[in-house]
Specification:
The protein has 443 residues and is an all-alpha fold. 81% of the residues lie in helices and 0% in strands. The chain has 3 domains: 185 residues, Up-down Bundle (Growth Hormone, Chain: A); 54 residues; 196 residues, MFS general substrate transporter like domains (Growth Hormone, Chain: A), CATH 1.20.1250.
Length: 443
């Protein structure tokens, strides 16, 4: 029952992340706002998620894992219903930001629930089952989201979350486990505020500059406030008693190098997913269902071969995989430049998606292993949370810069520019890995 609760509570967060991209064109058609609205629908969620995901662990220590999980589930359900009923784009964006707060409580709390109740080989198996089930959301999301958009309404996409959340809350009542709190634990509220303002101010400037221009006091003012707040956040982490992001973790070479590589690689993934999902509908004219399924081959490759790649990386070390994988994925992104006015998925899109998928398969598992393997196992939880936050923030910034990259609209030329930038980010991730990652000696 513990494992089922952990899977269901994470599943809704992963599912929501995959269905939203498919629904973006329909949302902007219904509520208006064009590319700016589409960017904010994604980034409003990622701002609060990326800023607060590090706080979830501290909240679990102070309030208890089960309490935090219940708060996250109820908040996610309420905001999902509000998003589905949104009368305006502005209301929807505010609800997405609040949904990100709830989402920040779900994934770390569900993993903490597993690590607290399973030990040894059983824990490894439980995490494996959790990973497989949440990966299933990556397959189900685009298909379900596309079908709802094409046959029913984009609004119903957000109501999908309500049933699994209701079931999870029922199972939590049936579970009857005592909750645990850590004596003396504190939440770094000031750090959370500084991080949120830092990300929010910077992202606001990046998204709205296309409308207001860089010379606008609103743009350069919000960028200045954002950068100063984020600098203050880092300074706060240096001296806080219970920091959200312990900076001493970055003394480990593979940890800081792996996180730099993560920033480039996951920024590229978010940029590619956003632009491809929108262009296939608005530019190539595919229905939402087919646009959602377009990237499915890459996900299938990851599911089939990630465990094998992880085993080989454990044998040979992660450096080779983290170098070759991103560069191969960059080649897949460049293959998407073959997309032209006479659109053909099978010859213009599928080859690039397959090469891209093989590159990701070589990258993701060794990347995670290198980062977590660089840190003592007693601190693997916070190390994983930091890496998760880095990947979310990288995606947040990449989506915020879409208008700058594509030139204002995701037409064919804009799509090609985004493909080149995606390839460049991936290639930089591979170079960073080659120069920085070190293979540790096997016992």
């Amino acid at each position: 029952m513990v494992l089922t609760i952990a899977i269901l509570s994470s599943f809704v967060s992963f599912l929501d992340g995959t269905v939203v991209t498919v629904a973006l064109p329909a949302i902007s058609r219904d509520l208006g706002g064009g590319l700016t609205t589409q960017q904010w629908v994604v980034d409003a969620y990622l701002i609060t998620l990326g800023a607060l995901i590090l706080v979830a662990g501290s909240l679990s220590d102070v309030l208890g894992r089960l309490v935090v999980l219940r708060i996250g589930l109820i908040g996610f359900a309420v905001t999902s219903i509000a998003i589905g009923a949104a009368p305006t784009s502005e209301f929807l964006i505010v609800m997405r930001a609040l949904q990100g707060v709830a989402g920040a409580l779900l994934v770390p709390s569900s993993l903490a629930l597993i690590t607290a109740n399973f030990r040894g080989p059983a824990q490894a198996r439980a995490i494996g089952v959790w990973t497989a089930a949440t990966t299933g959301a990556m397959i189900a999301g685009p298909l379900v989201g596309g079908l709802f958009v094409d046959l029913l309404s984009w609004r119903l996409v957000f109501f999908i979350n309500v049933l699994p959340i209701a079931l999870t809350l029922f199972l939590l009542v049936r579970l009857g486990h005592p909750d645990h709190r850590r004596e003396g634990a504190r939440v770094d509220y000031l750090g959370a505020i500084l991080c949120t303002v830092g990300l929010g101010g910077s992202v606001f400037a990046l998204i709205e500059q296309s409308a207001l221009g860089w010379t606008s006091p609103v743009i350069w003012g919000s960028m200045t406030i954002g950068l100063l707040s984020f600098a203050a956040f880092l300074l706060r982490q240096r001296f806080a008693r219970d920091p959200m992001m312990p900076l001493d973790l970055f003394r480990a070479r593979n940890f800081w190098t792996g996180n730099v590589a993560t920033a480039f690689i996951y920024g590229a993934l978010s940029l590619n997913g956003f632009v491809l999902g929108v262009y296939l509908q608005q530019g190539a004219g595919l229905p939402a269902t087919l646009a959602g399924l377009a990237s499915l081959p890459a996900t299938v490759l990851m599911i089939l071969f990630s465990s094998r790649v992880g085993a080989l990386a454990g044998k040979w070390g992660p450096r080779l995989f983290m170098t070759v994988g991103p560069i191969l994925a960059a080649g897949g992104s460049l293959l998407l430049l073959s997309i032209g006015e006479d659109f053909d998925y099978w010859w213009q899109v599928l080859p690039g998606i397959i090469v891209f998928g093989f590159g990701l398969t070589l990258t993701v598992s060794p990347l995670t292993s290198a980062i977590l393997g660089a840190i003592d196992t007693s601190r693997s939880g916070i190390a994983s949370a930091v890496n998760n936050a880095v990947s979310r923030v990288a995606g947040l910034i990449a989506v915020a810069m879409v208008a700058l990259i594509v030139g204002g609209s995701i037409d064919l030329g804009g799509f090609h520019r985004a493909a080149v930038v995606t390839a460049a980010l991936l290639a930089i991730g591979g170079v960073v890995s080659f120069l920085g990652i070190r293979n540790t000696a096997r016992a």
